[in-house]
Backbone:
């Protein structure tokens, strides 16, 4: 069990951490996730890889925990006015950090949808089912999250763009 | 045309743009830069999925919670799984030389008896484990075998069939850490070879077996043995969740099971697929 945990915890716990803003709460939920994994282990059928199976348990359990704590009440919440002042923070250290850290600046609902879609690869239909929202709501939250991350990470991203000859532009799909 | 809104630009990563929007991008460096930036963020986010982090909960804390849930045995003074005990568990596992009977083995209940050649596979697996314990387990682990305990006839048979390195031959290990490192390394090679064989063993190829149906039957038989071994390993891990040998054995078996399921899928008719096993 310890080896199984040691091999998979770095990625299973990572998905929990991405979904949960608070580090202490993430640790509590990660423990719940692993208890659930070991409890369900005898029923693991092998029709998916263990890592995929464990990953899905992590996502489901984390969303359940967040829902239980009523932290998903904000899934429909609008982006706050804080967004509009992000540009004033461009010199703050956090903008030089990774996307993971920038996620902490997103509203909970937008963060959840962004992580599920752009990081974990869920479809809007799956997200809608998980969160009890419409696919349109899922898309709306995703696009707001991306737009906000773009503003949060503007200095970093723009520096990357200007430091290379190729601006990386490829026309959107027609 | 006015600049596109940030949300609209963000949506164009996976939604089609209108002709007017595409034309605007050609002319507007600001919107184009925003679009490129969003694409970079999405690509970066996708890459995040494979980025591991340090576990959020230390194993000791998790083990305590697992004990409280009854998923591993309570800590008891002096409790340990000796090497000989571990081997006895494997050799006496359902499906390895014995009929299937354990009530917990729901995965194998009601299936056919194991073919003789599969018993040989099971014995070979037990033998490999025994060799691993004997060679890499170090003095402490080997003490259970060495200490004059009477071995079961099954283990004695394995020992007769597979020469086991005498305990004195492990003297090259300088420390328990050294022995553990060797054990990990050997187990990685062993697991890799096991998985490779499971995926490439030509003896189980449909052509050699006279058709896909026969190959599927053999894969199913292998799965029965692996299920039995996993059930036994789980019971052992309940008592000794930290035992490195049993952990490695369980992981190797789990990996072999996944590979075998995938191989089974490749020999089934196109109209069939494994939904549950």
Residues:
């Amino acid at each position: 069990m310890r080896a199984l945990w040691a091999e998979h915890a770095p990625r299973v716990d990572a998905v929990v951490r991405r979904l949960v803003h608070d580090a202490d709460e993430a640790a509590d939920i990660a423990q719940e996730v692993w208890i659930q994994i070991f409890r369900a282990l005898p029923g693991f059928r092998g029709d998916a890889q263990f890592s995929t199976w464990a990953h899905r348990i992590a996502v489901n359990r984390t969303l359940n925990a967040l829902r239980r704590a009523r932290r998903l009440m904000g899934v429909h919440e609008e982006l706050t006015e804080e967004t509009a002042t992000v540009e004033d923070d461009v010199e703050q250290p956090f903008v030089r950090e990774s996307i993971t850290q920038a996620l902490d600046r997103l509203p909970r609902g937008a963060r959840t949808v962004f992580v599920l879609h752009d990081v974990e690869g869920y479809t809007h239909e799956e997200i809608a089912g998980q969160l009890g929202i419409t696919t349109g709501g899922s898309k709306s939250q995703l696009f707001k999250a991306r737009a906000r991350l773009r503003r949060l990470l503007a200095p970093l991203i723009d520096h990357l763009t200007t430091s290379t000859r190729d601006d990386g532009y490829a026309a959107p799909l027609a | 045309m006015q600049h596109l809104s940030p949300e609209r630009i963000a949506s164009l990563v996976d939604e089609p743009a209108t002709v007017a929007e595409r034309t605007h991008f050609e002319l507007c460096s600001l919107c184009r830069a925003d679009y490129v930036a969003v694409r970079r963020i999405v690509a970066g986010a996708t890459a995040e999925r494979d980025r591991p982090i340090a576990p959020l909960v230390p194993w000791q804390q998790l083990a305590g919670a697992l004990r409280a849930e009854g998923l591993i045995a309570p800590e008891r003074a002096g409790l340990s799984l000796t090497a000989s005990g571990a081997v006895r568990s494997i050799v006496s596992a359902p499906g390895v030389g014995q009929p299937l009977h354990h009530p917990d083995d729901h995965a194998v209940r009601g299936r056919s008896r194991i073919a003789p050649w599969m018993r040989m596979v099971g014995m070979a697996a037990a033998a490999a484990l025994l060799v691993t314990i004997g060679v890499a387990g170090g003095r402490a682990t080997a003490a259970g075998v060495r200490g004059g305990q009477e071995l079961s006839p099954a283990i004695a048979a394995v020992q007769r069939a597979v020469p086991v390195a005498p305990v004195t031959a492990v003297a090259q290990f300088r420390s328990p850490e050294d022995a553990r490192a060797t054990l990990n390394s050997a187990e990685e090679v062993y697991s890799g070879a096991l998985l490779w064989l499971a995926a490439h063993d030509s003896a189980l190829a449909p052509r050699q077996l006279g058709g896909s149906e026969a190959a599927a039957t053999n894969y199913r038989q292998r799965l029965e043995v692996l299920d039995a071994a996993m059930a036994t390993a789980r019971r052992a891990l309940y008592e000794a969740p930290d035992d490195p040998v049993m952990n490695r054995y369980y992981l190797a078996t789990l990996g072999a099971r996944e590979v075998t399921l995938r191989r089974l899928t490749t020999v089934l008719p196109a109209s069939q697929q494994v939904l549950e096993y």
Summary: The two ends of chain B are 58 Å apart (CA to CA). Residues 131 and 154 of chain B are 15 Å apart (CA to CA).
